[in-house]
Amino acid sequence: MTKSDLAKVKLPDSPGVYFFLGTNKKILYIGKATSLRSRVRSYFGSDLEEKRSLLIEKMVSEAKTVEFTPTDSTLEALILETNMIRTHKPTYNTRSKDDKSYNHLVITNEEFPRVLVVRGKDVTEKFAEQDIKYEFGPFPSGVLFREALKIVRKLFKFYDTKKPVGEQKSRLERGKIDFNKQIGLFPSEENQQEYKRTINHIKLFFEGKKQQIIKELEKEMMLLAKKEKFEEANHIKKRIFALQHIQDISLISDDRRHYRDDKSLRIEAFDVAHLQGDSMVGVMTVVDGVEPQKSEYRKFKVNGYTSSNDVGALKEILERRFKHKEWRFPDVLVVDGSTAQKNAAQAILRQNSLVIPVVAVVKDDKHKPIRLVGQKDLLNKHKDSVLLANAESHRFAISYHRSLQRKKQFK
Question: Whole-angstrom Cα distance, residue 311 to residue 274?
């Protein structure tokens, strides 16, 4: 398969699972992606052997086409990828993976089932067949899988104690369970029937059947509302919303850190322009790899300030930018200014539960860069792209401000 073949495939900029298919649509390789478009394109770079392996290079040469299944989140892409690999056992996945060293998710067959992370080799060595109620995996990335479980924990409360629930002998062990109940990690006040339903929902979630869970919860919510149990119905409504809007920023960050091609790093740069507070505007520019993406530049008229306030204007612009969930999020965010602007950007990112590195470009009185404030390893690799994005944002902001000033003078 070649780059020209790929051009015929309309890949979305969204999470999902992709399939490289060979002759007779035989599945050669299955992978997951935060952005299907970016990930699949990375297989057709000139440095594929360096970035991946000879085995993957051979797989791409054998492939005839690529197909994909979009998902609502990176977490669901991780789960779907695992299930599909387990079902289809593609040649180029199974050749390069040792299942026994990877993590599996085990749900025990007990009065109060526990949800445990178990190494592949320990699934059979430490558990008899009748001890396991459900089992999922393998999950190749241990770090990614543990981050995924933190998100699952926010959706479903479950026990993951070393011993079966009720077999804790020491006061310390029982105290740990009570503490975890108090901070909302373990179930509390649920009866056994409710916990059984939670375990079934976890099972459905790891089978990729999220919509089935939502349908069950919606039915329950309607029944509660009919009985005028509005507080309980509202609690169910919040659970449905959480399932429909899974926050998996930690997975996106980890996915990009481990797999993203450095040459296609997406940088967004922001700058503010005004004349002593008059006609205050802001802009966003985008550099992907080493190329400005001018079709993705954005302009903002600053509404919240009538006098000079660069930091306040920047915060307003960033707040408005991150309301656009449909815009692809950046890998790096660049601001024009110093520590004050950098801190302002980080505050907005925290408000939106985003983990994105921020770089501040400090200028002299002639507006020439004199220092970059940010992660050293990132700046060592991407200094030129950061400076390009910043220069573009300054040029674009000045151009936008002047055009507004001309319109104002004309009127």
Answer: 13
